[in-house]
Specification:
Helices cover about 35% and strands about 20% of the residues. It is an alpha+beta fold and about 120 residues long. It has a single domain, classed as 2-Layer Sandwich (Alpha-Beta Plaits), CATH 3.30.70.1230. The protein has a 4-stranded antiparallel beta sheet with strand order 3-4-1-6, with helices on one face. Strands 2-5 form a two-stranded antiparallel sheet. Strand 3 and strand 4 form a beta hairpin. The longest helix is centred in the middle third of the chain and has 18 residues, at about 45-60. It is elongated. The protein starts with about 25 loop residues before the first strand and ends in a 6-residue tail after the last strand.
Amino acid sequence: MTPKLTSPPPIAEPVNAGFAGRISFLYADMEGSTPLVEQLGDDYPPLLHQYHTIVNAAISSHDGQTLSTEGDGFFCVFASPLAAVDAAYQIQIQIEGQTWPRMQHRDAELVSTPGQLS
């Protein structure tokens, strides 16, 4: 008997961030989140939700757009390097203001390239 083949999942439509010309990317995630999940157990999801709220607020307040997320990682695009750096700074300040258990937030990485995206 031949196994039934299924179609692959559809490819996601490309995100139209509405930016023209040079753009800047930002990747942010929590450092040490895997041990934190193990340490906190059922108390981790509310912390993750709060973290997502902080990151989403910083992205939207600097006119950025999230391209993808996985767990606590965010990959975002901004119209300028300054907007990306300002968003990263806002995230860092907000994270440092929290009273979470022994968690660090890795400095967000900023990459700005002069090339064109197609």
